[in-house]
Amino acid sequence: ETLINKGLTTEEEIQKFLAIQLGYPTVRLDRTYIDAATARLIPEKFGRRFGVLPLYRSESASGPVVVVAMTDPSNIMVQDEVRKALGEEIFVTLASTSQMNTFLDRIWAGGEGVGDHLMRRLGIRFGETTADGRFTLLPTVCLGACDRAPAMMVDDDLHGDLTPEGVDSVL
């Protein structure tokens, strides 16, 4: 923090260094899908105290996992507590402290994100298909449009800079 305050480095540079040193991938919370229901599976106080935010459920080669952002993924005891609280295996990513604080505020303020809006509007959850077979919601790490996040693809058309309201015009 002192190095950042003195202008000698940035939070992003420190995050990149830590990712290499600790061997965890980084995540930009402003450019990734966050399922509010999954994020709220751990208590707010715990998430804020330890800098932890469950992002979404996914599949790995070994089965289902919850992708989790942490500001200090080296804390194995916190990882164990998160695993126990979620009742599932976790895939840990490294997030910056400033983004963690911002997104914990958003999650616990109850605002609806693009993913939540899509689920409500289509009446399905991620990994499901609408009854008429027209839409399947699948979370993805990258559409090659980070500069336009949040983004989604409908057929072969990429739609970026989405808001919950903007989703309605796409559908």
Protein model, in words:
39% of the residues lie in helices and 17% in strands. The protein is built from eight helices and five strands. The strands form two sheets. A three-stranded mixed beta sheet has the order 1-2-3. Strand 4 and strand 5 form a beta hairpin. Helix 7 crosses helix 8. The longest helix is centred in the middle third of the chain and has 13 residues, at 97-109.
The helix/strand series, from N terminus to C terminus, equals: HHHHEEHEHHEEH
Beta-strand share of residues: 15-25%
Helix fraction bin: 25-40%
**Beta strands, count:** 5
Choose one word for the global shape.
globular
Provide the fold topology:
Layout: H1 2-5, H2 11-22, H3 36-39, H4 44-50, E1 52-60, E2 63-70, H5 76-86, E3 89-94, H6 97-109, H7 114-122, E4 152-154, E5 157-159, H8 164-170
Helix pairs in contact: 7-8
Give descriptors for this structure.
3-stranded mixed β-sheet; 5 strands; 8 helices; two-stranded antiparallel sheet; 39% helix; alpha+beta; 171 residues
